[in-house]
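Hi! If you just cloned this repository, the fastest way to understand the data is to look at a raw example. We've pasted two of them here, unedited. The first protein comes first, obviously.
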Amino acid sequence: MASFSPGSRRQFLKTSALGGLGVAAGLRFAGVARAQNAAAAPAARGPTRGAAPAAAPITPAPPARVALTTGNSRADNTLRALKALEKEITQAIGNKRVIVKPNNVIIDQPQSVTHADHLEAILDFLKSIGKTDIAIAESPAMGSALEGFANYDYNKFVGKYGVKLVDLDKEGCETLYCLDQMDMRSHPCRMSKMLLDPNNFIISAPKLKTHDLVVATLSLKNIVVGAPIKDPGAGLGSDGPNGGRSDKPIVHGGGTRGIHYNLCALAPRLHPHLAVLDGFEGMEGTGPVFGTAIAHRVCVVSADWLAADTVAAELMGLGIGKIGYLTYSAQAGLGQADLNKITILGPALQDHIKTYKEPAKMDQLLSWQRPVPSV
């Protein structure tokens, strides 16, 4: 979502029809609360950067492989990272339709969105392995996805690769439920049917960015927060100035506990099948829209989205211990988050870590780490 002033964010959250969902992975909010309390004292920076122990026994995630590339060409970095995992990606896709989900949070801020060169490298790779049934699909926070595609030079892909450009707001929906930490009730949220369809292979293709509510936007958040749909004319609140409604506020859960919980809770149905994270030029500070560019020259790819996000968080100098939804996902066994069990294909991870400037008011953003107040 876009960055707001404190007053507008308060109003945004206050007017949102936010809601609640039982965690499909076996967590319940009480379990998350216990996990929050267990993580109250941030853990030391270690191999997993502070992932707290699970609230209940969880089947361990299998080891994972993550491709890491670095260099002076964004497209070349992306293509080489994908080629490093070509066999397993090809097998995973099979005969499914491929949906590439960029991160176009807003339709007129090029520095904050997925670069066309990153997408073109993904399309070149898919072409090289014989995949032709491909769509690039998005639902931005405000405005038309198709207008954003035109602004960001995606239209050229239609003729060159035969891809379809899709506005997720117009492709049907399914109702899921999300938690609102303010009332602890479940509220319905219209979610993109295309991103939920098990016959589609979902590629998450964001850039590395800090975020002014959840600390970092990575591959999972790109899918989960892009999935809620909006009506024509909808604004950032649940009811737009022209009468349209956006369901995007619902997944934000009423605050830092709610949004982290919802991202983890929805992950079993809305996770990417392939994470392709562009860190050629990241964003630090006041992300996800108005931050500052940071030259990083990296790309991260994995069929295990949590492993990819864990490596990306390390590269940003954050670690998942500061990112609640990744900590919860690790606790729930939704993927591999132990760097000792992640094989890096490429250069040494520690040689390419850059410390991104954190968003403002980090103490507030880390409130999910503190014990839940007694009731």
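Ok, and the second one:
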Amino acid sequence: MNASTSIARSERYRATRRVTVIGGVLDLALGIMKMVTGYVVASQALIADGVHSLSDLATDFMVIWAAREASRAPDANHPYGHQRIETLATIVLGIVLIVVAMGIAWDAARSALAGSVPTPGFGALLVAAFSVFSKEAIFRYTMKVAENLDSELLRSNAWHSRSDALSSIVVIVGVAGSIMGYVYLDALAAIVVAAMIVWVGGRMTFRGVQDLIDTGVNPSKVREIKQAAGDVHGVRDVHDLRTRRMGNEIYLDGHVLVDPKLSVSEGHRIAEAVRHRLRKEFTDITDITIHIDAEDDEAYQRSAHLPLRREVDALLRDYWSQFPDATLIKRKTFHYLDGELQVEVHLPLEAFSSVDEAREAADKLRGAVAGDPRIANVEVLFQ
């Protein structure tokens, strides 16, 4: 992982901590205000909303911890980094929300069924209205930072704040209804708030699990990545492209098809060009592995049955042992293409007294291996 990535992670943590601390201070103040006011004016919905705000505070601490741990550089035990901690924290945060919501709904339903639903006071409306405006403001602020950082954890926390604002609207409706004589509306509002929290928690948990099981990025982005890689000069095709998320980062590997007769170094240079192009156009892709193919191996490995160089060298020595010209070979190049082995050898032209003598030597070398099904052909080149 390069130094710029480490710096970006550090800056990302500081931005996450700043916005989360601001939200945490507000959550603490709102939670205490709602619960105290709810107790004084006898509003179950406002008390439930206060618990929701305090659960926001608990998740704020979790967000800061997860962001700090995820920003740590890769080490020997975690060579890909620690971004999964952010994903895991998102899942835990979602589960906590669901559990809290179920408790709120249970208490509200139990008191409603027991017939012990008190009529809340007017003060509950004022506190709920203040909560709507303040939580909507922190939602917008947090979401803006989340979009800038492309942080699913911050998006989840922002929606946690938005759910608090929405739940306060429900509280306003329930409390107003109870004051007007519809006494069960306050308990019903608490249950509706709980349902909203469950929806937010379930959504967060689902997204976190998707990342944790290495779900790839959306198909439209994959098409954009393939297009960008395919536009690099020398690339004939892009296939077997795989992606997965690590926090806000995307890890990618894929196969690039090039001219089969290129040198290893030129093929590697094309791979580096593809990697550079993708890093430049997609800033969220931080880890890229490109495999260079001389032929399309997407369906199957056509040349997997063919012998490697050591065995081929031994075969050629046996076939050419009776030809002194074979000792003049400067270089042998093997091409594994279309399920066949093609041998390319280089001879010094100055070693032969005439062109005819050189052609005769080449014919002998080709003829000696003509009957071996493992070698498709021998091409003799003169330098």
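That's it. A detail worth noticing about the second one: The two ends are 44 Å apart (CA to CA).
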